[in-house]
Design goal:
It is built from one helix and 25 strands. 5% of the residues lie in helices and 50% in strands. It has three domains: 122 residues, Immunoglobulins (Immunoglobulin-like, Sandwich), CATH 2.60.40; 96 residues, Immunoglobulin-like, CATH 2.60.40; 92 residues, Sandwich (Immunoglobulin-like).
């Protein structure tokens, strides 16, 4: 008797099922196996946060956040970090730290794997000790000149070569500041003629800010500060003046101004040679009670002039006109 082909197929399938039922399931102890009880669909991000430039010094205490999940960790001593339990997929690693420009790195996380990421943070400039002092310099021609001298200490933990620009901001006005070696500070002199109204009074009540920017683009704005006062009155020279003839050790005499605040005097002596003045002597911090002072040395014959200024406790200054005299001895 001949059997039908369909009967054979059914018999083979039945036999295969019987065999399978007798064979135990293969073990699923590989954590990368989705059927494993130890399987988790997450990975880890690890790495190091360091300075922006070589030798890449580790930055401790930086915050490493993995978005969009909000999982975070702090860097340890040496800048090392690790963040586990991150779901598989594309993530954004946001690194921030006090005094540093934040940075974001994109990465792809795979289940059971560790992604290594190194991040270099730009140290922000540091702005401190900012101040402004006003100057009124009276003169016979072309008249009094008003100015404001602004200074500030600006440093960069990444080195002075990392600084790109230092700017003074006052309302809508902007002035570039330059580094002055003698004072080791950034300075700018703002003349009244450069202001919107051509008057130093325009600055009164306005907030000054020094802004420093480094090469990678990090910026720091220092604390705001303001003008304390503009001194209008100045001492009046009495003798010698108007080409008086004086001795080689002249005694300078002046009339004190009537001012409602404490101040000291600054006396300066210049020599004129071929019309060019050169400062040859000065003395500061003279008491406000003094109205005369003798030159402590001897002058050679020639043409001279002297000025007397008041300086308040903040450094604001108002200077007299030039008082010229001759020494013939």
């Amino acid at each position: 008797m001949q059997r039908h082909p369909t009967y054979r197929v059914v018999s083979l399938i039945f036999a295969a099922l019987m065999i399978k039922s007798c064979v135990p399931d293969a073990p699923h102890d590989n954590p990368l196996d989705p059927d494993s009880p130890a399987f988790t669909n997450s990975g880890e991000v690890a790495g190091r946060v360091t300075s922006f430039y070589e030798p890449y010094i580790g930055i401790p205490g930086a915050l490493v956040q993995v978005g969009p999940y909000g999982i975070a960790a702090w860097t340890k001593a040496g800048g090392a970090f690790s963040v586990a339990g991150i779901p598989s997929g594309n993530v954004s690693i946001i690194v921030s730290g006090a005094g540093y420009l934040s940075d974001t790195v994109e990465a792809s996380v795979s289940a059971g794997r560790t992604v290594n990421v190194d991040v270099h943070l730009d140290a922000l400039p540091v702005v401190s000790s900012c101040k402004v002092v006003t100057r009124k310099i009276d003169q016979w021609w072309p008249g009094p000149v008003y100015s404001a001298l602004v200074s500030g200490l600006v440093t960069d933990p990444d080195g002075p070569g990392d600084l790109a620009a230092v700017t003074l901001q006052v309302d809508t006005a902007r002035f570039a500041m330059t580094y002055v070696i003698e004072s080791q500070a950034y300075q700018v002199t703002v003349n009244a003629s450069a202001l919107p109204q051509g008057n130093l009074e325009w600055l009164v009540g306005k907030t000054f800010s020094v802004v420093a920017r480094d090469k990678p683009g990090g910026t720091t704005m220092g604390k705001g500060f303001q003008i304390t006062r503009i001194i209008q009155d100045a001492p009046v020279p009495i003798f010698p003046t108007a080409l008086d003839t004086a001795t080689a050790s002249p005694e300078f005499i002046w009339v004190r101004p009537s001012l409602p605040f404490s101040y000291t005097y600054k006396l300066e002596l210049f020599r004129l040679d071929l019309g060019l003045p050169s400062l040859i002597w000065s003395i500061s911090n003279l008491s406000a009670a003094v109205t005369q002072y003798r030159y402590p040395d001897r002058l050679s014959a020639g043409l001279f002039f002297w000025t007397i200024s008041v300086v308040d406790e903040f450094g604001n200054l108002s200077r007299s006109k030039e008082a010229s005299f001759l020494v013939t001895e």
